[in-house]
Each structure stands twice: as C-alpha cells, then as structure tokens.
Specification:
The chain is mostly helical. Helices cover 66% and strands 0% of the residues. It folds into 2 domains: 161 residues, no CATH class; 166 residues, no CATH class. The chain is flat and about 65 Å long.
C-alpha cells in the first residue's frame, strides 16, 4: 500500500511528538519549567523579553519571577513546537474525516487525538500555574508519551513501515505485559524526576551506603500536597525521596527482566521481522540500563538524563511496533 497523505502526516506528527517529549524533558531537567511564569505567553508576550527595557518591564510585572532569558527561551521553544504538533493533529483529524469512506481509514483515533492534545495544552498550563506540581507534570509526561504512541500506531497502520504477522505462540500477551510494565516504570521515572529524587541515592548498588535505608511510602506517594506552593526543587524530605528512587530502581529490575526475556524470545523467532525487532529491543534496553546507571554514577548530567527520557520513549515505540506486527491490518 503506498503512503497516503494521511500516512505521511501521521509519521511526521509522530516524529514531531517525539521531539516535543524530548524537548520537554530537557526543559524540565534544566530547571526551566517556570522560565515563563505565565501561560500561554511569556511575561505577557508571545516571545521572550530579551532586551533591557523589555526585561525591566517584565520584572516589574512579575517581581517574584525575574526574567532568565535562557530558561524562558527553552520554555517558549517547547510551547512553539507543541503548538505545531497540535496543528498537525488537527489537520490529521480533518484528513481522516474527509477520507472516512475509504476502507481501512482510521476515524475515531484521529479525533480522539485532537481531544488528547487539547488536554495536553491544559496540563501544560497547569504545569506553570500550579508551580510544577508533581502530579500535573508527571501526567503531562505520560499523556505526551500517549500522544506519541498513538501517532506512531496510526503511522504504522497506514504506511508500509513494518509488516504484520501471524506467528505461533503467545507473543501478543508477552508484548502487552511488557508494554504495561514499561508504562508503569515510565510513570515511576516521571515521579522520580518531578519530585527531584533522581539523586536521592547517589551510590550503586546501595543507597546512601545502605541496602535498604529509611523509607516513607505514605509521603512519597501522596499525590496531592496542596496548592499555593512552588514545587521547584522539590518539597519532600530525604526519606520520601529515597523511597521514590528505590521504587524506580526495583521497577527497572522487573521491567528490564520482562523486556529482556521478550527480546530473547524474539531473537529466536522463526520470522525475520520479529528477530530484527528483538535485536532492536535488546539494544534499546541495554542502552537504557546503561543511561540509568550513568545518571547515578555521574550525578545526573543533563545530556545523559535527557537521553534516558528519550530511551524510554524509544522502548515504548518498539513495543507499540510489536503490537502492530502481531495484529491483522483490518484491526484499527
């Protein structure tokens, strides 16, 4: 099946969504999430006030958040890119509606993506107005990855990127289990990042010199800590942050084992496309584990931390690809 305009746009939107997710991680990890204290503009403008008289005026209007030009530009570039993604999704939905009579054309999912990207915009606004509340920021990450995964699914279903197969065995169940566990681990990683717990355990394989230091699960996983306070830099004490970090480490062991086992089985499959995907999964998993260890050993260098976020997105796309390969093309 040749690539249609819909398929090409879905693929473009998926690449754009990946860029938005990675840039969002960069903004968060470089502490630029409040680089613009208002929304959707920046200090009341659609660009960044970077001239002396504009900075003085912005500082007078927002005395509690003086202008930091570099951080403000990071935040605004992320908003510009996200706006472009929203426009691409609206066009995608319009194309789907126009071609709704074409056999095999996805109809519901493109429209659902419009609602999803609008909700993402609301979460982006709340990220700023609620001062980096972890529940909101983590949700923003998860729904951003959901948008990415659904766009990739649309691209796979409408363009001949990889084949669909009907292999023997319980591949779909294994793949679905790995996908669900990965989503849970990504949520744990987001919670670790948004609560500034990535360096709560600065050593390996122990944590603060202990195999199991003092923990506080009730505080660590309290989703709502109230309004009217800034969460920049985190508000939890050491025990709660250690708990979050340890949980993420334990989750990595479980998820790594399941995805590693799946990759091993795929490498031994009779069908060559499954073997290729098994190699991709194994490579991504090894890279992701290495990046996670490097984050601790090197004390969270920004390039490594951003790459770790990108690695999670890549693993997600690989497991979505597996689900596509194991489902008949008439299932949309």
């Amino acid at each position: 099946m040749p690539r249609t305009a819909f398929a090409r746009l879905a693929l473009f939107a998926a690449v754009l969504a990946l860029s938005v997710v990675v840039l969002g991680a960069y903004v968060r990890l470089s502490h630029a999430g409040l680089g613009c204290p208002d929304w959707p503009g920046c200090y009341g403008r659609l660009d960044v006030p970077d001239e002396p008289h504009l900075i003085a005026s912005a500082n007078a209007a927002f005395p509690d958040r003086p202008v930091e030009v570099a951080k403000a530009w990071k935040e605004m570039l992320h908003r510009y890119l996200a706006s472009g993604l929203g426009l691409a999704i609206v066009v995608l939905a319009a194309l789907a509606w126009r071609q709704r009579q074409v056999p095999g054309q996805a109809r519901v999912l493109p429209l659902a993506l419009v609602a999803l990207v609008v909700f993402q915009g609301v979460l982006g606004m709340w990220t700023v107005t609620l001062l980096l509340k972890p529940l909101v920021v983590t949700s923003h990450l998860l729904f951003g990855l959901t948008t990415l995964a659904l766009l990739w699914w649309l691209a796979l279903r409408h363009a001949p990127l990889v084949p669909t197969l009907s292999p023997a065995g319980s591949w779909r169940g294994w793949g679905l289990l790995a996908l669900l566990l990965l989503v849970g681990q990504i949520a744990l990683g987001g919670w670790t990042s948004t609560n500034y717990a990535a360096l709560a355990c600065p050593d390996l394989p122990t944590c603060q010199g202990q195999w199991w230091p003092t923990t506080d699960f009730s505080t660590a996983y309290t989703l709502w800590h109230g309004l009217g306070r800034s969460y920049e830099g985190g508000v939890l004490d050491n025990a709660a942050r250690v708990t979050i970090h340890l949980t993420h480490r334990l989750g990595a062991i479980v998820v790594g084992g399941v995805i590693g086992g799946l990759a091993w089985r795929l490498l031994r499959a009779a069908e060559r496309p499954l073997r290729v995907l098994g190699g991709v999964l194994a490579t991504l998993l090894a890279t992701q584990i290495s990046l996670g260890l490097a984050n601790v050993a090197l004390h969270l260098p920004l390039p490594v931390a951003v790459a770790h976020n990108a690695g999670a997105a890549a693993l997600l796309l690989a497991l979505v690809t597996l689900q596509h390969m194991l489902r008949p093309k008439d299932v949309t």
